[in-house]
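Entry for pyridoxal-5'-phosphate complex. Fields follow.
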Amino acid sequence: MIFDEEINQTIRYIKPSGIRKFFDIAATRKGVVSLGVGEPDFITPWHIREEAIHAIEKGRTFYTGNKGLPDLRKGICDYYKRRFDVDYDPDKNCIITVGGSEAIDIILRTVLKPGDEVILPTPAYVAYAAIIEMAGGKVVEVELKEEDEFKLTPHALRNAISENTKAVILNFPGNPTGGIMTGSDYRKIVPILKAHNIFAITDEIYAELTYEGKHCSIASFDEIKDRVIVINGFSKAYSMTGYRVGYILAHQDIIDMALKIHQYTIMCATTPSQYAAIEAVNNGDRDIEEMFLSFKQRRNYIVKELNRIGLKTHMPQGAFYVFPSIQITGLKCEEFCEKLLDEENLALVPGNAFGDAGEGYVRISYAYSLDEIKLAIEKLEHFLGKYR
Ligand SMILES: Cc1ncc(COP(=O)(O)O)c(C=O)c1O
C-alpha cells in the first residue's frame, strides 16, 4: 500500500475480520457448503415486510428525528418491560441505530477516553476488539472457559480489573460460544462492577434465543442500572439483518452524548426499516417463538451429531452457534478449517477468529436448514476419518 505511513496507524494495524478473510476464500470455490454465517435463514415475516413496503408506498421516506421514530422507541421500551421487566423512558433513554453494529461503535466512542481499558470476555464477537481500539481504548481479554460453560466468573472479572478499567463487554447469549448468564450468575458479578464503577455494555442481540429459562438482562439490577448500557437490535430475533435496525438503552446522560455522534455521522436509521421494526416489536412475539422452536430443534440435533462423530461439543444455552473442540484432530483451528474447505468443500470459522482463547475450537452456525446441517455433518464425519 502506498499510503502506509500516511493513514491513521490505529486503523492500519487492526486485523481484518477472520470470518471475512475465510469467506473470501470460500467465495472463490464452487459448491461450498457453509455453516459459517451468523444470519437467520428465515425470510422476514410477511407482516413486517409489508410495513416496509407500505412505508415506501406512502412516501414515508424522509429522515426521521435523530433518535428515531417515537413509536419505535416506545415499542422497544414496552418490549423491554414486557419481556425482561426493565423500565426505560422512550424519550430519555433510547436511540435507534443502524443495527447493533452502530450501537457498539457509538457507545464505545462515547464512554472511552484514550487509554481506558475495556474488559472483553473472549472468545468474543469479532467487532468488539476492533471497535475498542478504533475508539482509543485498550482491550483486556478474559478467557471464557468451557468448564465454566463459557460464563464470566467473578474470579476472572476481578483479576482483569485495574485502575484504568472503564467498561466490560457482556454478550450473553454469546457469539460464538452460545454461553448465557442467569440472574444468579449476574448476582455474583454485579457487586464487583458496582464497587469499581465499571460500565456494563451488554449486547443482548441474542436475548430471544435463550433455550433454557428466560433471558436475564443485567439492566434489571437497579443498583448498577445507571452504568448499564443495553445494545440490541432486530437482526437476529426477527430475521431482519438487511434492514439494519438496532438500538441503545441507557441513562439519559449517555444517550445525550451518544446522540451527538449519531446525529453527525448517521442522522437516522433507514426510515422504512424503522416502520417495519415498529411492526416487529409490537406484533412479532409469535414469529420469535416459531423461529426459536426451529433453532432449538437444530441445536439439539447438531450437538448430538457432533458428539456422536467425535467432536466434543458443549450444549449451548443460547444464540445459534455451537463451538466444538477439535482437540482430537491435533490440528490448529485455522489448519482444520483450511483442510476442511480444501478436502470437503465445507466452510466453518476457526475459533481464533474470536480471540486467542478460541484456539482449539471452531464455530459452527446452525442458522441453516436441517438438510444443510446434515450434509455438513456427513462431510465432517468423512474428514474426521482421516484426522483423528
Ligand atoms: C454479538 C453480536 N452483536 C452485534 C451484531 C451485529 O448485528 P447487527 O448490526 O446486524 O444488529 C452481531 C452480528 O453478528 C453479533 O453477533
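NOTE: The chain has two domains: 9-44+286-386, 46-283.
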